[in-house]
Amino acid sequence: MVEWTDKERSTVSAIWEKIDIDVIGPEALARVLIVYPWTERYFGTFGDIFSATAVLGNAKVAAHGKVVLKALDSAVKNMDNIKATYADLSRLHYEKLSVDPDNFKLLADCITIAVACKLKSALNPQAQATWQKFLSVVVDAMSSQYF
Amino acid sequence: MVEWSDFERATIQDIFSKMEYEVVGPAALSRCLVVYPWTQRYFGNFGNLYNAAAIIANPLVAKHGTTILHGLDRAVKNMDDIKATYAELSVLHSEKLHVDPDNFKLLSDCLTIVVAAKLGKAFTGDVQAAFQKFLAVVVSSLGMQYH
Description:
The complex is a heterodimer. Chain A has helices at residues 6-18, 21-35, 52-57, 59-70, 72-77, 82-85, 87-96, 102-119, 125-143. Chain A is an all-alpha fold. Chain A has one domain (15-143): Globin-like (Orthogonal Bundle), CATH 1.10.490.10. In chain A, helix 2 (21-35) packs across helix 4 (59-70), helix 2 packs across helix 8 and helix 8 packs antiparallel against helix 9. The longest helix of chain A has 19 residues, at 125-143. Chain A starts with 5 loop residues before the first helix and ends with a helix. By secondary structure, chain B is mainly alpha-helical. Helices cover 69% and strands 0% of the residues of chain B. Chain B is built from 9 helices and no strands. Chain B has helices spanning 6-17, 21-35, 52-57, 59-71, 73-77, 82-85, 87-96, 102-119, 125-143. In chain B, helix 2 (21-35) packs across helix 4 (59-71). Chain B is globular, with a radius of gyration of 15 Å. The interface between A and B is medium-sized, with 23 and 24 residues.
């Protein structure tokens, strides 16, 4: 089981509190589609996502970005059992959505960058280390039902 | 050979023309040492690296961070032949310094986060894509002479 120090727990909560899900969610997903264009294949029903401008103006991308980031809330509130928390979601991404689990890491990286742009120096090295640890546990949990 | 769009060239030149080497270099290297602690093994003669505060305050880390960042200048000036530009540096890191090439990616990730935090909103998805592409080419060139 993953061990969290008190400092790590409070760091994750503090960062989460400062994040506006409705802003960071869309931004992170947009970055994924722009920076790693092959991910567009997962969103065939979203219309035009084939240029940065289109991605940034796309309402479905924005809506879905919010859904994805809101789902992180469960991990923030259940840091001691992230794996069980995401078991169903992992199975869904594997069996129904057929998402290559490497993409979870890409999304995690883009979330971190969006957070860095917003928090700037408040995301100091220790905070970055804790946040990346948190996201890597989430990424692991999301990959856990794949075989 | 790597193809660069006009936007990508302009973005890289712009970021580096405004770069505060003595701030960003130390910040990126110290983040690497804090977030990925195994990297400390390469800096055995740097003195106190026992905790984040020590790393961030360490003058040898700061100096070396600045040196590394200036090392990117040659790639910025030779974007059409980054591979040849770094052939010797790659040999040095492989044969003399024995650096695991996976670590180049870690450092480039930390540099991306520092630049993102510095530019804030200006670090758009397009800019992120260009910057990460540039660093990916650098990372690949540095790993090229390993065998």
